[in-house]
Amino acid sequence: MCGIIGSPDKNTFDNLFDLNQERGNFAYGVVKFNISNSVKVVKDNDFDKKVEFEDDTVFYLGHLQSPTSTKRDYADDTTHPFVYKDKYLAHNGVLSNFDTLKEKYGSVNEVDSSVILPMIDQIGLKQTLQELKGTFGCWLYDSNTSELFVFRSGSTIYTDGKNFSSTPVDGWELLDEGVIYRFNFTKQRYEQYDTFETETGFFI
After folding, report:
1. Which of these, 28, 22, 68, lies nearest to 47 by C-alpha position?
2. What is the CB neighbour count within 10 angstroms for residue 158?
3. 9, pLDDT greater than 70
4. Nearest to 25 by CA among 203, 160, 167, 170
5. How far is 167 from 157, CA to CA, in rounded Å?
6. Which candidate, 67, 77, 68, places its Cα nearest to that of 43?
7. How many distinct helices (H) and strands (E) make up the chain?
8. How far are the Cα atoms of 103, 128, 161, 167 from residue 200, in angstroms, in the given order?
9. Rounded Cα–Cα distance for residues 198 and 75 (Å)
10. What is the pLDDT of residues 156-198, one digit of tens each?
11. Torsion angles phi and psi, residue 87, rounded to 5
């Protein structure tokens, strides 16, 4: 079980970071990007460090990791987010068909989540999500197009329309499964972009 979070506001992001540590306190990764689409990635396993905020950042994305394998040593390359061809992705959940997908599409590393970006590159976002088996709640930032997406099947993602969190927040709603949401930076809210078929019947 891990946590994914996102907010255009640094104070809200900081609060969500603290809230989601109950879901993941092994390692964390943060993506920050500004209006000129300069992207910065920070990864660490020292939770005593506070995430540095910068005035020109327009959005903060985070992943708080709880290891889902026997590996217990921190490594930068197995810490979310994963990067592939200027796309950034973080995943909460477990993919049961990772070995099959890796053989077919390749992967960034040995973590199950790392197969998702090569798949998107080869067959597109919607088809990728329909081929994944298991559970997933993800954020995806494409710096080529300056688009931010969130989507889930099984794994939880709550939102107030502008911010999102794996851990529930009072008054926030659970995003619908099987829907790809894209963030409208002008309106500062998530809007339905597309749908995909999902059969997952449980949450993590």
Report:
1. 28
2. 19
3. yes
4. 167
5. 7
6. 77
7. 4, 13
8. 23, 15, 24, 19
9. 32
10. 999 999 999 999 999 999 999 999 999 999 999 999 999 999 8
11. -110, 140
